[in-house]
Design brief:
Blueprint (H helix, E strand, L loop, with lengths): L11 E3 L2 E3 L3 E3 L15 H12 L4 E8 L19 H13 L3 E7 L19 E2 L3 E2 L5 E4 L2 H20 L4 E6 L4 H6 L14 H4 L1 H14 L4 E7 L10 H11 L5 E5 L6 H7 L11 H9 L6 E3 L6 H9 L5 E4 L1 H5 L3 H6 L14 H7 L15 H5 L10 E5 L3 H12 L3 E5 L19 H16 L2 E4 L6 H7 L3 E4 L3 E3 L13 E2 L13 E5 L3 H12 L3 E6 L10 H11 L4 E5 L2 E6 L3 E5 L5 E5 L2 E4 L3 E3 L1 H7 L6 E3 L9 H14 L2
Parallel strand pairs: 3-4, 3-13, 4-5, 5-9, 6-8, 9-10, 10-11, 11-12, 12-13, 14-15, 14-17, 15-16, 17-28, 19-26, 20-21, 20-26, 21-22
Antiparallel strand pairs: 1-2, 7-8, 18-27, 23-24, 24-25
Length: 652
């Protein structure tokens, strides 16, 4: 029994298959493959790393069962004879890491895209019922023969996975895809034996399960992913989700319970919970299914990012296994670090969804906190011990500076980290006060922990000068001095009663009920949300036509759903002309007319500007000087961390 997380690391045996622990690497969209669905070495290394990191099972993501009607992405993984050697290689790589191998099979149904399939000009997406969807495409209600054909396709692909050495398959029966469309009253309007009652609506998914059993035998495990609720009016309810789970109970080996719909933006941010929702927000659906008497082991998923939360879910009997995606993208070694009792070394997921939305845009997978994710193969050959130890000075204790210091120290350099403030963290210090930023706080604390665990001399309250560098004998300098708040020449903005967004957290008692936030970028919006959640009436003033245009669409959707619950007003398309501290803000609208927005308290978030003065003073003291993070250009922690890591590698 593991003394740190006994439930999480208790093996689970189903039939003849044993899972080494209760942490499942759940499927995620795949990258690093060509348009024929053939993977490169980076994909194989990506999944191998998850196995080496300690997950019990590693599941490849959304794979269409055909390219006639099933695909929703032009770049989709292929399961065919030509790709069989690659399939076998991935399974072998996963097994070498000690994990079981699985793959998610899917059919997009009525959301399939014309450009992702090989149809002619008469092509139509298939679904349970005839309909016309959002883009004008006519949906073809499937005939009984077509239903049988698709079920056969599922079985054929599952059988091919078994041939390739996979231990199991995950059927995607949730999130608004075809199997879910059949059990959902929102999309299934049939009047034959495949429509009406839940027993009838479940007939097609049960057919798929039965055909896979016939093709693959009882020793090939079937995991079924379902939405505990579609969380949309007219869609699958929680009660119907329980009813469906009872119908597949005993017919599948694992019931994987998620929520929401990928096919609807408002529900997708519940399927993939943003930072604006609680961790583990969808666990209650799995718990309800177990409480209803379902005997098949139940897997839960949804923003479960720490071993502590995972352990408590299992301990309370809400699920039998924990599936993670983003947490294992941020740190594939989360299971091993937890197993050895080192949760402080787990690189935390920010739930920013840069990973998923980047894939939506056709890019390869990236992670905001882990530059090596999906680049394991290349980075393993690049990030090596230093050829000779150098005396390195890192200027600035924000995320970029801390990452640079840690990477340099790990490579064998002698490292000094100088920070002008009295503690590390840089601009992230404000996260200590904002519950909304709990994940960002964990990142800050993680980086500080890594600095303290490495042989790094930390000098706080230290202003670095050219003389300081020369006296220390440093032969390489990494400048990570960051940025400071931008203060445009607006009349009245210099009033001492006006606080910046990053400093207002410790001065809440000084704020009145009505607060104007100047600037509607992400910083202003998230600060405004924090103030509203703490009882203030907030008006966000933004000169652009929309707030937070720099946010990815999922982050913005999640934020706007939170806005709708609070006393927040956004005034866009207006330019600030004058600030009257204690009274309000004068703005000029698009018609050139001046308006007055009353607010007794004012907070500004009008961008950041690089500390170019620090760069100008220090960048020529030694030849090998590198600039990272906001000192180059104000951006997010993601860029600072990545640049900090690579600056430390470029030291040689």
């Amino acid at each position: 029994m593991n003394k740190f997380y006994p439930e999480l690391f208790k093996p689970l045996t189903i039939k003849k298959v044993t899972f080494r622990n209760r942490i499942f690497s759940a499927p995620n969209m795949m990258s690093h493959m060509d348009f024929n669905g053939r993977p490169d070495d980076s994909m194989i290394a990506y999944f191998a790393e998850k196995a080496m990191g300690g997950a019990a099972v590693v599941t490849l993501g959304d794979t269409p069962v055909d390219r006639e009607h099933a695909a929703s992405n032009p770049r989709s993984f292929a399961i065919d004879d030509e790709n069989l050697p690659n399939l076998a290689e991935i399974a072998k790589a996963i097994h070498e890491g000690g994990a079981l191998a699985s793959q998610e099979l899917n059919h997009a149904g009525n959301t399939a895209l014309r450009e992702a399939n090989y149809g002619d000009e008469n092509w139509m997406p298939w679904g349970p019922s005839d309909a016309v969807r959002w883009d004008g495409e006519k949906i073809h209600g499937m005939t009984k023969e077509e239903i049988e054909k698709v079920a056969d396709n599922f079985a054929e692909k599952a059988q091919m996975l078994k041939r390739a050495g996979y231990d199991m398959v995950l059927l995607h029966g949730g999130h608004g895809w075809l199997l879910d469309q059949f059990i959902s009253p929102l999309t299934n309007k049939r009047t034959d034996e495949f429509g009406g009652s839940m027993e009838n609506r479940a007939r097609f998914p049960l057919m798929v399960i039965e055909k896979i059993r016939e093709a693959c035998g009882d020793d090939f495990l079937i995991e079924y992913r379902m939405s505990g609720s579609e969380e949309i009016e007219g869609g699958l309810s929680k009660e119907e989700g329980i009813e469906f789970a009872k119908l597949i109970d005993g017919k599948v080996d694992l019931i994987h319970v998620s929520a929401g719909m990928d096919t609807e933006e408002a529900q997708a941010v519940h399927t993939h919970p943003t930072m604006f929702l609680p961790h583990g927000v969808n666990v209650h659906y799995a718990a309800d299914i177990k409480a209803a008497g379902v005997k098949t082991p139940v897997v839960t998923i949804g923003a479960i990012t720490t071993p502590e939360l995972a352990e408590s879910i299992l301990e309370e009997g809400k699920a039998d296994a924990i599936a993670m995606v983003r947490a294992l993208i941020a740190d594939p070694y989360l299971p091993e670090k937890a197993r050895h009792g080192h949760p402080e070394d787990i690189r935390p997921c920010l739930r920013c969804l840069d990973c998923l939305t980047g894939l939506h845009e056709g890019c390869n997978l990236t992670c905001a906190v882990n530059p090596s994710t999906a680049r394991e193969n290349r980075h393993r050959n690049t990030i090596k011990p230093a050829k000779c130890s150098r005396n390195v000075l890192v200027v600035g204790g924000g995320p970029g500076g801390m990452q640079a210091a840690v990477t340099a120290a790990e490579r064998g350099h002698k490292v000094t980290l100088a920070e002008k403030e009295n503690k590390l963290g840089g601009l992230l210090k404000f996260t200590d006060y904002d519950d909304l930023k709990i994940d960002l706080k964990r990142l800050k604390d993680y980086l500080i922990t890594q600095v303290n665990k490495n042989d790094i001399e930390v000098k706080l309250n230290t202003e670095v000068t050219p003389e300081f560098i020369k006296k220390g004998g440093y032969d390489a300098v990494i400048l990570a001095a960051g940025s400071r708040p931008s203060k445009p020449p607006i009349e009245g903005l210099d009033d001492e009663r006006i606080e910046h967004a990053t400093t207002v957290y410790v001065k809440l008692d000084s704020l009145s009920k009505n607060v104007a936030v100047l600037g509607g970028g992400l910083v202003g919006c998230e600060t405004g949300l924090f103030l509203a959640e703490n009882g203030h009436s907030v008006t966000i003033i933004e000169m652009r036509d929309e707030i937070a245009p720099e946010a990815n669409w999922m982050h913005r959707e999640g934020m706007m759903q939170s806005f709708a619950k609070e006393d927040i007003t956004a005034r866009c398309g207006v330019r600030i002309s004058k600030v009257d501290a204690g009274n309000g803000v004068y703005v000029t609208n698009a018609e050139g007319k001046e308006e007055f927005i009353a607010a007794e308290s004012i907070v500004y978030a009008l961008g950041m500007r690089s500390c170019t003065d620090v760069a100008e003073a220090l960048e020529d003291v030694v030849i090998d000087t590198y600039k990272v993070g906001d000192i180059n250009r104000p951006r997010k922690a993601r860029q600072a961390i990545e640049e900090g890591m690579w600056a430390a590698i470029r030291l040689g």
